[in-house]
Amino acid sequence: SRPEKEWMQSTQSKIDSFFNKYIDSSRFNGQFLVAKNGFTIYEKNLGFAKYSSESKMDGTTPIHVASVSKFITATTVLRLVQEHKIQLDDDVRKYLKNFPYEGITIRMLLNHRSGIPYYAYFSEGIWDKSKTMKNTDVLNLLVNHKIPLNYPPNTHFSYCNTNYALLALIVEKTTMTSFPESMKKLVFEPLGMKNSFIRNYS
């Protein structure tokens, strides 16, 4: 339900005090937003979106969100589960035929329990760092260089970007469209996220 006016004003005041205490607004370039139950309680957009043109940051400015994007990738996968195109306990090899490991499921990738090592580490010495590594490159390195697992699947939790690179490939294989386009159709458009997109390096 919509927050009460008095509660909103009190909460906004507390958040504003926190913001002013811990964030140097003269140096901050970005967006600060607090929401609850679908309602924006507090929002500040400060600094430049682009220094060269001195264009100001506002609520529509796209910002690179790094690993926060994993939540949206997971949402995309779960939309496909909802549409019965993927099952959480499917073996990854059902979708990526040359995937070199047995017994790893989509659920394990989502939960960082696959045992697959981080591509930034295992690619050392076998990848030209002057080139942008794409998700297909990650898979090919795992296949061609027989990279060993860090531990048996589903025995440990270890946060690892490689899991989500592989999930993006599974989404592409299932939808027969690029990952940016899949995320747009399955998540961004249904939620009205008009200023969100996945950068495509191809």
Main sheet characteristics: 2 strands, antiparallel
Report helical residue fraction. 25-40%
Write the element-wise H/E pattern from the N-terminal end onward.
HEEEEHHHHHH
Low-confidence stretches: none
Characterize the overall form: globular
Q: How many beta strands in the DSSP annotation?
A: 4
How are strands sequenced across the largest beta sheet?
1-2
Distance between the termini: 44 Å
Which class best fits the helix and strand makeup? alpha+beta
Q: In what range is the share of β-strand residues? A: 5-15%
Number of contiguous helices: 7
Quaternary form: single chain
Name the average pLDDT. Answer: 92
As a whole number of angstroms, the C-alpha radius of gyration is 20 Å
Short description:
By secondary structure, the protein is of the alpha+beta class. The protein has helices at residues 5-22, 69-82, 106-110, 119-122, 135-144, 161-175, 179-188; strands at 30-36, 39-46, 48-50, 55-56.
